[in-house]
Amino acid sequence: MSLEAEEMSLVDHLTELRRRLIYVLIVFVAGLVLGLFVAKPIYLYLIDADAAQGFVLHAFSFWDGIGMYVKIAMAVSLVFSVPFIVFQLWAFISPGLRPVERSAALRYVPYVFVLFILGIAFAYYIVFPMALSFTISITRSMGLEETYGIAEYFSFLFGLVIPLALLFELPLIVMFLTKLRVLNPLRLRRMRRYAYFALVFIAVVITPPDFISDFLVTIPLLALYEFSVFLSAFVYRRQLAEDAEREARYVKAE
């Protein structure tokens, strides 16, 4: 291949990448507009959490109210954008995949949405009330007067929910990378101690500084990793069987 052809190939790839980024931006903006329409009922639902009862949320800036609607709209847009982003990523790299890998990877895309919703539910209904109750109890035990801003409330909420929701995509990512033969269960088992350390570190960072909160978040994350190893092993065994069958056909043909 000539240098000119290689350069044209690179230009084509960059053009394709730009086109797909534009698609992602369009979907994100459309989701943002939709999110603005549903922001108020979502806002009323989120501030009605049991752990948030008993104190009044304040606005310390003229932009706090608008800012909350924008944050909620962005979260709504993210829910719809994440599966589309994954699909666009697949579409970008699919020309370099074999047909069987291409069809298998495409089947993973719908589960991105399912796992993201499960992560949001786990973070909001389990982790967030626990974390909020703990921080409030510490504040009250110190005899401090509670004056909470609406901006701080939602920053605290989204700071817990969004990272955990994204971490719930781990099994799907591992399956996809195993299908591409980038990962395998043997490598994942060798990496277990480092992966455990990383997941425990993430759990400690995004939860209040107490053992119970860390424990309740760490255990599901470690379970997710082990589930990812199990799924990787399932995909890997099928790959070995397909390789053996292909080799047997090749030997028989000779």
TrEMBL record:
It comes from the Bacteria. Pfam families: TatC. PANTHER family: SEC-INDEPENDENT PROTEIN TRANSLOCASE PROTEIN TATC, SEC-INDEPENDENT PROTEIN TRANSLOCASE PROTEIN TATC, CHLOROPLASTIC-RELATED. Coiled coil: none annotated. This is Sec-independent protein translocase protein TatC. HAMAP family: TatC (MF_00902). It is a multi-pass membrane protein. Part of the twin-arginine translocation (Tat) system that transports large folded proteins containing a characteristic twin-arginine motif in their signal peptide across membranes.
